[in-house]
Input
Amino acid sequence: MLSRRWSSPVMAGIVPALAVSLLLGAAAPAVAGQAGSTPTAEPGRCVEALGVGAEGDACVNIVHASPDAPAVDVYVDGEAALTGFAFGEASGWVALPAGEHQIQVAATGSEIDTAVIDADVELVAGEAYEVAATGLLTEIAPQIYPVDLSAVGTEAEPMSRIRVVHTSPDAPAVDIAVMDGDVLISNLMFPDSSDYLEVPAGTYDLEVRLAGTTDVALELPGVAFEEGTVYSVYAIGLAEDGSLTVLPVTGTALEAEM
Output
């Protein structure tokens, strides 16, 4: 578990993102839960759930989802937090003091005053956020996706919480479906996030379809979701050149009360 905290000055050397295993060829159990469920965020508790930072902090995971952007350096309040951060990477969870922070993103090795992203973000104590650089370089923009780390499932009924985030700038609206089966998430457009689904922990064969059709844009066989884990599955890359793929970003949910 990460135990890093960004403060002022910002701490660098963030560890890589947590990996999600993709187990090929396993059968897909039936999905319980429906898209459109309302997140049940529990403010003030991301530090407890993720094991990072201290009381009064917010929790942040940065995602590089701009497919034609070079590796970048990320600055928080004028201090380097990430260097050489490449497309398709996530920083892993770190903590920042709650309040307003300036986030700047510049090509690796360039001066901070050449930043292609320069944005102020307001972070609430105990809340968790994924902050993604999205779009092609000429239109690159930050997107902030709050993360629901509230308890999910029980010991008797182990569950996972998942959502899909559409960050492929040239891909049309998509549906996420069980392979050769029902649609779970419909008409998801760039750069939106779906609502969360709560599903039994297990392994699923999924596919990304063009919205409203059975045309498959991307197969996702054997995706494993672990109990008590919260997943954001980012659709990244470009449809035009065939680089469309997924980047799973994970967080640990609060323990369910007995």
Remarks:
- Residues 149 and 253 are 4 Å apart (CA to CA).
